[in-house]
């Protein structure tokens, strides 16, 4: 082996220390926080869907109203 490869290898203690630091730095998954985030996402999705349905309904009502004005029909 050449010297560059030998010098680039980690000793067991350094490797263990780096591994422990990496494992300690990871965020642990908190089920309550994950459930809260997921439920907020679902709630926001439902709110968006309801708002979209209301916007479509309003647009349809407006279109019917404009159409009735031009055709002379009663709405």
Beta fraction: under 5%
- Range of helix content: over 70%
Count of alpha and pi helical runs: 3
Alpha-carbon distance between the two ends? 90 Å
Topology:
Layout: H1 3-8, H2 12-25, H3 31-71
List keywords for this structure.
rod-shaped; mainly alpha; 75 residues; 3 helices
General description of the model:
There is one protein chain. The chain has 75 residues and is mainly alpha-helical. It has one domain. Helices cover 81% and strands 0% of the residues. It is rod-shaped. The chain starts with a helix and ends with a helix. The mean pLDDT is 80.
Q: TL;DR?
A:
By secondary structure, the chain is mostly helical.
């Amino acid at each position: 082996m050449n010297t560059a490869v030998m010098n680039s290898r980690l000793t067991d203690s350094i490797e263990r220390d780096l591994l422990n630091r990496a494992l300690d730095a990871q965020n642990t998954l908190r089920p309550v926080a994950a459930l809260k985030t997921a439920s907020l996402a679902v709630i926001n999705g439902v709110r968006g869907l309801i708002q979209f349905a209301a916007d479509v309904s309003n647009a349809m009502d407006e279109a019917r109203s404009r159409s009735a004005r031009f055709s002379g029909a009663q709405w």
